[in-house]
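step: validate -> pass
step: tokenize input -> pass
step: predict -> running
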Amino acid sequence: MSEPRPESQPAQQQEPPGVLGEMTPKPDHGEESYRGSGRLAGKAAVITGGDSGIGRAVAIAFAREGADVLIHYLDEHDDAKDTARHVEEAGRKCVLVAGDLADRAHTKTIIPKAVEEFGKVDILVNNAAFQMNHPSLDEVSDEEWDHTLAVNLTAMFTLCKDAIPHMPEGGSIINSSSINSDMPSPDLAPYAMTKAGIANFTASLAQMLAEKGIRANSVAPGPIWTPLIPATMPPEKVEGFGEQVPMGRAGQPAELAPVYVLLASDEASYVSGARIAVTGGKPIL
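step: predict -> pass
step: emit ->
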């Protein structure tokens, strides 16, 4: 992998959910650097939030490791099509599904679509998330609270429940938690609560599914430079985002992808119930 770009981010802001084309500097998703070695050959994966950020990096890496990929995203069509291009250039099939994970009826169409296209689901990556920065609970509307739980928790539950009957032995569920799961930011209270729930749910799921030969793990990213940041944080917090961790910078999505590849692969056959920190040196408990 090439060396991550060290420059800090200038102050900037976008409308949610954010798009890659308006970010300065552009994130590194491994487009030019990731080299596969067949570690996921013959597997089929579903990735939510796969149009940009961590999900895009994971989709590119999975495809270059030999997996076909269904990418779910909200409405960032240009970003999703560009991610699909990278998957297809790796010689793999890419299926794009757009829609709102807060709509449970829509969420329940995703796994059936993957089964229709691939015949199975070997890997499920619940990566999509919603957050907004609020210094006071007075600023968090009931509607925003419900939306955060629907996207971050209920959609994960629904997709896991729907996917498990179609997962063969050796299947892998990977849920994106966060450093906020046990070091919650006061400005991200609803989001942080859901990320703790994701970690806890995943730990339960690992024990529940062990007899089926299906593994469940979570990844806890620290500050990662994705469209979610300028779309959900005030410009003054975007500037220098990530400088608070020991490594002194935000991580790039490409720096997450190898962890997801490991957890998805047969090399992690005895890894289940883990929460792996990718935090630039900031420990999690």
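step: describe -> Residues 142-163 form the longest helix (22 residues).
step: cleanup -> pass
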